[in-house]
Design brief:
178 residues, alpha+beta, Jelly Rolls, 3 helices, globular
């Protein structure tokens, strides 16, 4: 069976994530989205669509070399942000905004839970089947990378005993091969 989600422990180091957080927050002024505050670097198919902006250039130079081997060769980077979330995000898929595009992978880099970089409590990302039945709970750990295919249902886990969690998210899609 082909795995369509997974985790890689100890993928990052603290200094790397701290540097990225600082730069995401310097590059973007941030905006409120549902129960979160989001510092997005770029949105290649959205209103801020430009591959010439500073955020996209920073992402390609600093983050892509770290994650490129985990992605398909025809990957297009759609969105990347640092998020401070204080409420759950319901079950959803990370689909591109255009039906002509093929969903790619989403990558999540947990950063902190309630301000702690060491104690992630029971913080998780939950994975569901196409009928929205829970199939796995991916418990967060420091410096790990979580990934899932964009057409896979998932949610932000429960927020019992959590004030907030912080993480990086990158969403991709695939160019069609002709």
């Amino acid at each position: 069976m082909i795995q369509n989600y997974g985790v890689i422990e100890n993928f990052f180091n603290d200094d790397q994530l701290e540097k990225w957080k600082d730069n995401y927050q310097k590059i973007s002024s941030g905006e409120k989205y549902k129960d979160s505050h989001t510092w997005g670097l770029f949105d290649s198919l959205g209103k801020q669509s430009t591959k010439n902006n500073f955020g996209y250039k920073y992402f390609v130079k600093e983050i892509v070399p770290t994650i490129a081997d985990l992605l398909h060769k025809n990957t297009v980077y759609n969105y990347s942000a640092f998020i401070h979330m204080w409420g759950p995000l319901k079950i959803h898929k990370d689909l591109p905004p255009n039906d002509d595009l093929i969903p790619g992978r989403s990558l999540c880099f947990p950063y902190s839970v309630n301000g702690s970089r060491n104690n992630y409590q029971e913080c998780s990302t939950r994975i569901f089947d196409q009928d929205k039945n829970l199939i796995d709970t991916l418990l967060w750990k420091p410096n790990m990378l979580l990934w899932w295919e964009g057409n896979l249902y998932h949610d932000s886990g429960n927020f019992d005993n959590l004030d907030y969690k912080e993480f990086f998210i990158t969403q991709t899609y695939l160019e069609k091969s002709f």
